[in-house]
Amino acid sequence: xxxxxxxxxxxxxxxxxxxxxxxxxxxxxxxxxxxxxxxxxxxxxxxxxxxxxxxxxxxxxxxxxxxxxxxxxxxxxxxxxxxxxxxxxxxxxxxxxxxxxxxxxxxxxxxxxxxxxxxxxxxxxxxxxxxxxxxxxxxxxxxxxxxxxxxxxxxxxxxxxxxxxxxxxxxxxxxxxxxxxxxxxxxxxxxxxxxxxxxxxxxxxxxxxxxxxxxxxxxxxxxxxxxxxxxxxxxxxxxxxxxxxxxxxxxxxxxxxxxxxxxxxxxxxxxxxxxxxxxxxxxxxxxxxxxxxxxxxxxxxxxxxxxxxxxxxxxxxxxxxxxxxxxxxxxxxxxxxxxxxxxxxxxxxxxxxxxxxxxxxxxxxxxxxxxxxxxxxxxxxxxxxxxxxxxxxxxxxxxxxxxxxxxxxxxxxxxxxxxxxxxxxxxxxxxxxxxxxxxxxxxxxxxxxxxxxxxxxxxxxxxxxxxxxxxxxxxxxxxxxxxxxxxxxxxxxxxxxxxxxxxxxxxxxxxxxxxxxxxxxxxxxxxxxxxxxxxxxxxxxxxxxxxxxxxxxxxxxxxxxxxxxxxxxxxxxxxxxxxxxxxxxxxxxxxxxxxxxxxxxxxxxxxxxxxxxxxxxxxxxxxxxxxxxxxx
Length: 632
Hints:
- By secondary structure, this protein is an alpha+beta fold.
- The chain is built from 9 helices and 34 strands.
- Strands 1-3-4-7-8-11-13-15 form an 8-stranded antiparallel beta barrel. Strands 18, 23, 30, 31, 32, 33 and 34 form a 7-stranded mixed β-sheet that branches. The protein has a 4-stranded antiparallel β-sheet with strand order 5-6-9-10, with no helix packed on it.
- α8 (about 570-590) links the parallel β32 (about 560-565) and β33.
- α3 crosses α4.
- The protein starts with a helix and ends with a strand.
């Protein structure tokens, strides 16, 4: 009985849980068909049987038997949810009852079957699983020649006899089924159901109580007539906008962006050179995304004057920077080491040599250099590799390394110019959204001012947050606002655009004089001083601090030191690592210029000052930036 209640409860719970969830509507056709299946007959007797010798046998133990069912079925849909199902068929409820006395073991072998009529209501399109339905109804059965025989210790004691006063069978049906479509008009529907009897097997006084709950598994083949109604297509919709446009403060916290202040100042910035050129997997030359090779289109035309104050852009022209400097430093020698990633390229010494040879040939051809001054080597892994357990780290190990006997060749680049525009805040983030009934095919974000595009970012699928660093001179000397627009297109070719502006407040030299506002010089230094997962300042960077940074710090300067990391690893760990890096630099600077004001900010990976999808961007992100502001 516990099993019966459990089964019934499980079906009811499933119905209650899934009923509110509406699945994709399925149209059910009127149909007729046949069904057949197996039964588990769970006899629950409780009666005494009196033998001719006046021996009383108590049959009270539950017993399971197996039978079958077969018949015809008809379906008539009332709507997309309610489908009336009528069934006529044969239902076998046979089983073997057992009882024991002190001396003997008795078996009551019953042959019991019914001609049944079962009106059932099916419930479609209410479950979150397409084609799955629930069913509930009643079963009415007329007994067909119910017979029994009794065995004593395996020997016939009473031959076949009719069960007296057989009763009609009434049962409540509850179940579930699934429809497999064969074609537009034919389907196969397996169904699992439970029959809870409302009547006894017999109304004879000898049978005090005897019912037969039943678990039934059947499969119906239905042949529909009529035509499927085609669902009206859901019109495509697309909604675009911005959840937020915000900026990051010195500690990496976010705030809503209301306006941008642009100031005209004397500005200088030191840009480190990453002495690596990165290659794609199994490629001997860098892609155009990783290296801009000016020499191939205009040999000897490269000039430092054309460099933008942008670390990514400068480092993507590393070969031209090195070629130009070697051209002007004839006594310098260069060592080029091609490396592999130690994974998919492991042991491919030829590929490593080809990478090194590519860089040498480019420099010799485009800058007319002496090939005897350039040495090419190969290595399976770099001397100081990045992580070999992440795809980003593995990609960074596929590279061409440059080193030189002359410090000038790979020395950081300093750009110092008057009348520069500096934005505050300079690290902003757009968080766009695109909500569509169809998949998002593509999206684009344009940022501009006065018709000039500042940034153009694009992607596919769901749009992501876009961080943007406003570099010097990105914004013009004007009060004109910064404009932005976000466009998305879905698979249905529906395109939507949303636009907006951010006010710009521009402070020129003249305005600061007229309004008696303080003026200042700004010097910014980015130090590529940390290897992967390290907070040790290299000897080369200590020399840069001594020669370039300390002379820029005056007694009344304010020095802001920002520590950053790449995105590899745990975010909390990276924030602590960034803080250790920034404090290491502060500690060293304070030993040299004690009177300046120092502020340390361990930002970590949250603020992406460079593109972390690029190997050179991740290398540049392992940095400490030093901002020196000095009143004029």
